[in-house]
Design brief:
The structure is a single chain. By secondary structure, this protein is of the alpha/beta class. The protein has four domains: about 180 residues, P-loop containing nucleotide triphosphate hydrolases (Rossmann fold), CATH 3.40.50.300; about 60 residues; about 80 residues, Arc Repressor Mutant, subunit A, CATH 1.10.10; about 160 residues, Leucine-rich repeat, LRR (right-handed beta-alpha superhelix), CATH 3.80.10. Strand 8, helix 18 and strand 9 form a beta-alpha-beta unit.
Length: about 525
């Protein structure tokens, strides 16, 4: 009896209030427990159980404190599904719950924020439709009436911590045992809001990816035997991204083998628009320099060591790389900067959407050949990465390089080199060739075909110089001011006879070549 007497219940606040109102609240509360409003979830949720268990462990449901947990990751990774699954799984343990969708796009003006507050309160309060007069009225109601309630709230798709704070200033406004979940593409936002734990949604393992693709492409758990090879190529293309697996699989359902082959070929240069648009949203809110660093990594620097990237790029790159990492646009593994293949392809598409004469970066062999052959539209080019192992012989007109006054990054390399191959000189230059070098920070030219660098070579901003297997006899004549030069590599340049004076260099790291001064 003592234990029963200590249990809390409903009471009539005012003497003249009818008993029917609290009775109605009790009935609504019981109905909510008996018939919880679960959120709809897609069929064939492959690989989500692991996410669910890990997220529940972070929520620490056994504790009676108010706890906030964030879910972050790139678009299409499954944040929505994970949030809905955990919401449905723990919903019945709370006195009220609310899943607020589209916080990013619905908190720009007062009317939208007022509607979000009404949805929040309506989902948590038992019964009735609340009509708020103002945002402050809603915030005061949350603070005053929810302080004793154990509630579950999900803020979905948040891009600014202020947007959550405009609705709920403090998590202490909710009662003991409450749980708040925030989903976002930006980990930094979770740090700013002060969540207790953050969970990064990861791509699917290969086995799970194949199963998810099969459910959408064939409506069965296992891939059809006669489609295994093409299916594996598409699964490899998606690299475990659930959205890509679902979209690609669904688009090929009931299609012929020839149509599958055609779709695979098309994806090599034309990313699926639905996938691409979803990924591109992660760029929203980045400033210009952050977008430029993203494009540099996507087009040229993916897989490079972080310290190498910091040398090549400007001083702001350290901070910008952190921002890109927080948004899951890049990862850093064993000191190397990596990027999901579909995010890289999204970056490529941003460049390709521009008119050829306006493109700032060139990396595709066909695009490079067209640009060099046209001998125009090179004024905007800032970076070129040219795989000589895939190239045909090409004679370059000297005016082509002379027009590239914004060139920062030039790399001509042998990507698919095998020992049995001979590194021939694929790019032929006239002896009087000149190219602007005032902005050049990185020069990598494997099998450089001339005996010296152009006479107008400046190099004042040059950070790295790589000319392996070249015909260089002497880099340049006279003294050069190369105060930023950190690395020089002339390995296997057998004709090298003379090295210039490096007294102006602050730091110089040499390669293992006996011809390199260090």
């Amino acid at each position: 009896m003592t234990e029963a007497g200590s249990l809390s219940g409903w009471h009539v606040i005012k003497d003249h209030e009818y008993e029917s109102k609290p009775i109605e609240e009790i009935i609504n509360h019981i109905l909510k427990r008996l018939n919880p409003k679960f959120l709809p979830i897609k069929e064939h949720m492959v690989g989500m159980d692991v996410h669910l268990e890990e997220l529940k462990s972070l929520l620490k449901m056994q504790l009676d404190d108010v706890r906030m947990v964030g879910i972050y990751g790139i678009g299409g990774i499954g944040k929505t599904t994970i949030a809905k699954m955990v919401y449905n799984d723990i919903l019945c343990q709370f006195n009220g719950a609310s899943f607020l969708e589209g916080v990013k796009n619905r908190s720009q003006c007062n009317n939208d924020r007022l509607q979000l507050l009404q949805e929040l309160l309506h989902g948590i309060m038992e019964g009735g439709h609340l009509k708020l007069e103002s945002i402050y009225d809603g915030m005061n109601m949350i603070k005053g009436r929810l302080g004793s309630k154990k509630v579950l709230v999900v803020f979905y798709d948040v891009d600014d911590s202020d947007k959550v704070q405009r609705l709920v200033r403090s998590y202490e406004w909710f009662g003991p045992g409450s749980r708040i979940i925030i989903t976002t593409r930006d980990k930094q936002l979770l740090d700013e809001y002060g969540v207790h734990a953050s969970y990064e949604a990861k791509v699917l393992e290969d086995k799970e990816a194949i199963e998810l693709f099969s459910w959408h492409a064939f409506k069965v758990q296992n891939i059809r035997e006669d489609y295994v090879d093409m299916s594996n190529r598409l699964v490899d293309y998606a690299k475990g991204l659930p959205l890509a697996l679902e979209v690609l699989g669904s688009s090929l359902y009931n299609k012929t083998k020839d149509e599958w082959k055609s779709a695979i070929e098309k994806l090599k240069k034309n990313p699926n628009r639905k996938i691409n648009d979803m990924l591109k949203i992660s760029l929203d809110g980045l400033d210009d320099s952050q977008v430029e660093v993203f494009l540099d990594i996507a087009c040229f620097l993916k897989g490079e060591a972080k310290d190498c990237i910091l040398r090549i790029l400007d001083d702001h790159a350290e901070y910008d790389i952190r921002v890109l990492r927080d948004r899951c646009l890049i990862t850093i593994s064993a000191t190397r900067v990596q990027m999901h293949d579909l995010i890289q392809q999204m970056g490529w598409s941003i460049i390709r959407e521009k008119h050829p004469s306006k493109r700032t970066r060139l990396w595709d062999i066909d695009d490079i050949h067209k640009a060099l052959s046209a001998q125009e539209g090179m004024e905007q080019v800032e970076a070129i990465s040219y795989d000589l192992s895939r190239s045909k012989d090409i004679q370059v007109n000297k005016k082509v390089y002379e027009n590239m006054k914004k060139l920062r990054f030039l790399k001509l390399y042998w990507g698919d080199y095998h020992g049995s191959m001979t590194k021939t000189y694929k790019v032929f230059l006239p002896k009087d060739c000149e190219f602007p070098s005032q902005e050049l920070r990185y020069l990598y030219w494997e099998a450089y075909p001339l005996q010296t660098l152009p006479s107008n070579f400046n190099g004042e901003n040059l950070v790295e110089l790589h000319m392996r297997n070249s015909t260089i006899k002497q880099l340049w004549k006279g003294r050069k001011v190369l105060g930023k030069l950190k690395i020089i590599d002339l390995s296997d340049s057998r004709l090298l006879t003379k090295m210039p004076n490096y007294q102006a260099c602050r730091i110089l790291r040499s390669s293992t070549s006996p011809f390199v001064k260090g």
